[in-house]
Amino acid sequence: MDCEIADGNPKIPNLYEGVLERVRSDYGFGPGIWLQMEPMHRFEIRKKAKEYGIRNIVFNKIVGSLKNVVTSVQMETRLKKWRSGIEAVVSNLKRGFDLFRCEWKGRDHFDAKVLWSVIATTSE
């Protein structure tokens, strides 16, 4: 639904807010589900996701007082299984095709590699 290749090392919560804004403006509605892979900035991201009306927010790692926000236990299970399935596909691609690093040099080639990767994974 969205892909942005940022310059430098921007703050993660700002990236998520940008994604939510672009999805809302491009499609007329925001996503109903948010999967968070990394534990960094989890409280800030959960707050922003709730502000945008996302009903199901699932984190990979639950630390401290952080809790998943889901409409049902079944939804939480489905989202965790979906994330695990994506990780398995990526792992198999990396091992099977030696896709460990981008050999293309320069920013233009890197951008092309990222965009082609997005197209390839969304067409499955």
Characterization of this structure:
The mean pLDDT is 77. The radius of gyration is 16 Å and the shape is globular. It has one domain (12-122). Strands 1-2 form a two-stranded parallel sheet. It is 54% helix and 6% strand. The two termini are 14 Å apart. It contains four helices and two strands, in the order H-E-H-E-H-H. With 124 residues, the chain is mainly alpha-helical. It has helices spanning 12-27, 42-51, 73-97, 107-122, and strands at residues 33-36, 56-59.
Q: Strand order, biggest sheet? A: 1-2
Unreliable segments (pLDDT under 50, ≥5 consecutive)? none
**Main beta sheet strand tally, sense and closure:** 2 strands, parallel
Write down the domain tally.
Answer: 1
Question: What is the ordering of alpha helices and beta strands?
Answer: HEHEHH
DSSP strand tally:
2
Rg is: 16 Å
Number of helices: 4
- Give the proportion of residues in helices: 40-55%
N-C termini distance: 14 Å
Mean pLDDT, all residues: 77
Oligomer: single chain
**Strand portion, in percent?**
5-15%
Given the C-alpha coordinates, what overall shape results?
globular
| SS content category | mainly alpha
Which terms would index this structure?
124 residues; two-stranded parallel sheet; globular
Gist?
The protein is 54% helix and 6% strand. It is mostly helical and 124 residues long. The protein has one domain.
